[in-house]
Structures
1.
Amino acid sequence: MEYFIINLNFYKKELFTPENINDFCLFNHICKNNIQSMKISEVCELLSAKIICDLKQNAFDVEKGYSSDLMSDVLTLDTDNLLLITGMCNLQTIRTAEMADVRVIAFVRNKKASGEMLELAREHGICIMESPFTMFKASGILFEAGLKPVY
């Protein structure tokens, strides 16, 4: 048995057989979730997060997400409109975000930003949110919702 599927994302007709139908399902899932950007309020809702340092949260969108507790890895990134998902909750995280031009940080695992961290984030125009989810769960939810990974 053969299936003809017209993929509207790329305007082409493809032939799929029972042997490669799984390839189509994966391909279609990836295409379906290929969005351009996500509002900060959407991220907050998906992660059941509270925005702690609100700097015009809907004034900009995030296009990609990156999860790491290693701030040295964050410094190697050259990506605009990035959401940093981390459990590393200290002043160094805010300083790293400022150097890497990260405008949004989601602290996971119920980590709480200190007053000093919030003050520094406000100075540099960084939006901070706190989520109860693990880094793995937060990353998975955002990926499933269509947020692209850095690589």
2.
Amino acid sequence: MQTQTSAYRFMPTKENELIILKERAKLLAEIIINKDTKTELVSYIKFRLGKSELYGIEYTVAKEVLHHCSYVSVPFAPTYIAGIFNWRGKMVSVIDLKKYLNIQQSDYGDDPYIIVVKAKQLVLGVLVNRIEGSDFYDAKLLDKPIVSDSAIKSEYLMGLNKGLVGILNVDRIFSDITSQLNP
């Protein structure tokens, strides 16, 4: 069994290193404008839910990706609340996106990731199977989501990047979660 290592241990400690890290994070989160084609590219974290479904969350709302992070289940919480964990001194709820979005269930295994997301003045951890990397999309070129009774609500997707990756509308998802928890 692996011991948990805090990501804080790997953070730079020197002031100039922290400045560089913050500048890089800011550049990753910005919308990139390609001057040749006048397209706006938005960067996102690409991750897997279940065995084969790929989704993305924009870097502008993602605050941190945690690996080997433990959380504690909460009794009498809605089924899509996987639990809570301590994130930098704050108690943060962990959302099981597969349950919330009604995606075919499969075990997260021993190695799930939590993406800490801040949107609509709300900070939540989003439980995902695996981080697949990062990519860019042009909002004008996103394919429309497929409308189906068995698929996730179309308003939860901004669209499909390259027909493969569902770009999540985090603001809409968080608004619905907030209204469900605070009727």
3.
Amino acid sequence: MPELSTATTPNSPLPGRSVLAGKYALEALLAEGGMGLVYRGRHVELDQPVAIKIVRPELSLDEEAVARFLNEARAVAKLRSPYVARVLDSGRAENGAPYMVLEFLEGRDLRKLLDDGSGPSVDRSLIQIPEPTDRYRNRNAFFR
């Protein structure tokens, strides 16, 4: 995981910027997906860790991709579950890319735990998944 003193990686949604929306410092890139990037960040006023999910700059003009992202943000914001990170904020970066800020949950990567056999059994993990998703099954929400 590359540490970022400023968000200047080639895929960065905010070239040359280290603070998003004037209040979220980008600290480290945690993950990259087809649609976006996830950073560990910190609310600069509250000194609280956050996770920041932001749409890739090249997709920020794709209306369908932006609509999917905003639908995901709205759906997740309605969830109340110990198994789902809460959405704390959303908006658009200076370059127009939509973002959402989520509570940062400390822990270990479930995929790595399952792969190395040190985590819970797959059966036990699957039992816990339906609880937060059942309430939103009929609301066109998609969970990964």
4.
Amino acid sequence: MSIRRPIVRHFGFTIALSAGLYVPNCIPTEFGDHHAARVEAYLPTPFVDEDARFLDPEQSLGPPDGRTVALGAGSYVILRFFREVADGPGDDLLLYEIGPDDAEARVAVSVDSDLWYEFPDKVVGQVTSLDLKKAEMPSIFFVRIRGVDMAGHEPGYDLDAVEALH
């Protein structure tokens, strides 16, 4: 099995290049990957020890696994999907947060990382779903999650993963 995984990665990377979908430093682990694949930008929570384990934004990549990045007030992370996330029927994105603290965040989406739509409601809770129809965008590549409070031991919204449903 360990022999096949590198072949799949290489094969996926080759297909992505030939299809014109190459994203630098963003190599899919499988074709069906529905989770954020790259950290485009990150501003850590201010006034927190920079060596704290919850300040690694790459912990928010891939499927939910219990490893988080804490997004306190004044911080944000911009994540990129390897593939285009289309507006389909019903909800299109799931955000996974860990922690009992009811920390809140603001979420924005973009197709090009220049023009953003920020959802009017704050996200709170362990799983939040969002519908791209509200953003009036047929598809996106980028999601920005911005911390708005300092709730909890690991201050702010503890982002575990972002998943595309379509």
